[in-house]
Amino acid sequence: MLTPSAAKLVTMLLFPEIAGAAMLWVAMWYFWFGFDRSSYLKKALWFPFLLFLVPLATAFYYFLVYRRGARAEAPTASAQSS
User: Fold this and answer.
1) Count of helix runs (H) and strand runs (E) in the chain
2) pTM, whole model, 2 decimals?
3) What would the pLDDT profile of 2-11 be if each residue is shown by its tens digit?
4) In degrees, to the nearest 5, what angle opens at C-alpha 20 toward C-alphas 17 and 21?
């Protein structure tokens, strides 16, 4: 059993992780609804994972879908100079 001071310390240490996971979940849903240009089949396959496996699926979606989309749309050095 945690003492009240230890419980407050654990709460203070875990709050940033909880807030970050919640913000990532909202941001990945926002991207999924508005900006993801994947096929409807791929989006349909991601839907249950994003809905039910919140902390793990959002991290996978970020690295496997979001980052690839951002990298594909990033301007290259040669395109910027011309």
Assistant:
1) 5, 0
2) 0.69
3) 788 988 998 8
4) 85
